[in-house]
Please model this.
Amino acid sequence: MAKIKQEIRALSGDEAVAYAVKQADVDVVAAYPITPQTIIVERFSEYVHNGEVDTEFVCVESEHSALSMSLTASATGARVFTASGSAGLALMHEILYVTSGCRAPVVMAITNRALSAPINIHCDHSDSMVERDAGWIQIYVENSQEAYDSILQAFRIAEHQDTLLPVMVMLDAFVLSHTLESVNVLPDNAVQRFVGMRNIPLIQGHQGKPVPFKLDPDNPITMGPLDLYDYYFEHKRQQEEAMEMAPRVISEVHDEYARLSGRNYGDGLIEPYRLDDADLAAVCLGSTAGTTKTVVDHLRKRGVKAGLLRLRTYRPYPTQEIRAALQNVKAVAVMDRSHSFGAHGGPVFHEIRHALYDATIQPHIVNYIYGLGGRDMPPTLIQEIYTSLQRIAKTDQVEKPVQFIGVRE
Amino acid sequence: MTPKQKTWKEVPIGGVCWRPSTDYPTGDWRTLKPIRNPEKCNRCLLCFIFCPDAAITWDSEAEDIGFAYDYCKGCGICAHECPKDAIEMISE
Model:
């Protein structure tokens, strides 16, 4: 149990994010509003207006500029936050790679919203799934409490000397972004002790001596200029190394925060739910996990050995942990809230299959594409998934490995 | 002979330069070379100002300009901007 007295506040997911950023002693926020992320930016601009934070708040003309500003501010050694989603994240695409390539530890909140066309403002994971290869750490949260907790952890993870990678924290559009929840918040001083100051490591500069890894007129360095076939590959290999270090850092920061707050989310990478003795497992990300846990409880009361694996960290992908968690079940249903057209399944499905290829006994694996453009995923549909898993486990046969659920046929 | 190149464990992260850019002679990118006619040149130094590679040199003793051919990429901006048409770009 946490020793620190926490305050319960009624906050939407967006407000919880803004509140965490307010407490985290952030130097620069550069953002451009997009539904449903807007409230994050609005609330934070109120904090700035009211003098509650000492943050340089920059209103930019687009998301491309928002992330360019965030990257360059971060390169000077500042702690930086931004937020976006959907088309805004898509417009940041180019700079996402520049940010991770420059090893700028920017923290960004993403309200997961569908991509056009047709235009849609509601939840699916298409916007952030397509950015999974951009070299950012990706954390998907289940509720607003976790959004608050994860933003605070994200600064520590991003700025850790073994990672120095940007982090995006994903929360489901409207389901979380606009829905009030009871959120426990830590006192300001506890947050400040936890996040601390940003440490700037030393790096070898062009004059051959160690200098702080930041843009500083007194110790000038050049970051990310032309890098051809002679060294580009080495720099990409370094980014992979940082990603390989990241799971340990994520779990350590998660555990330290858990001791402080009394709240934990599995090991920070994956969160198994009633999976130890399960025969049937669903896998999902984000707020759908909350509904699925209720369905699992219901099925358990009826004697069905159902379980859930929630992926919290999607990049770095916790391959070993996933394999260990799923290798003893008989049938797995992977729920994808985005689709890779023509790829015979969603991205999470492909990667869960990849994780289980090296398992001693491979369970049956099926894929359900669900919830595109905010289509509701009620408990009845999730129950249908477990029913089909029961059939697969019993007959030992998969008829259709990839299905769409919740769409009118 | 190619000098031994560093491994990913040896180079600084984030694409930070560990050597000055002058260690990287870019003159061999050039296909056209600037040649000056000293009779026409009035040493106005517009070429010095416009050169994007700082490859126009200034000799303060002789009070005259020159070209750092190790770094000149042959872009021709100096020839284009010269008000006296004193610089000609010739094939290497």
Notes: The first strand of chain A starts at residue 7 and ends at 11. The interface with chain B takes residues 101-104, 164, 203-208, 213, 221-225, 227, 230-231, 233-235, 237-238, 241-242 of chain A (CB under 8 Å).
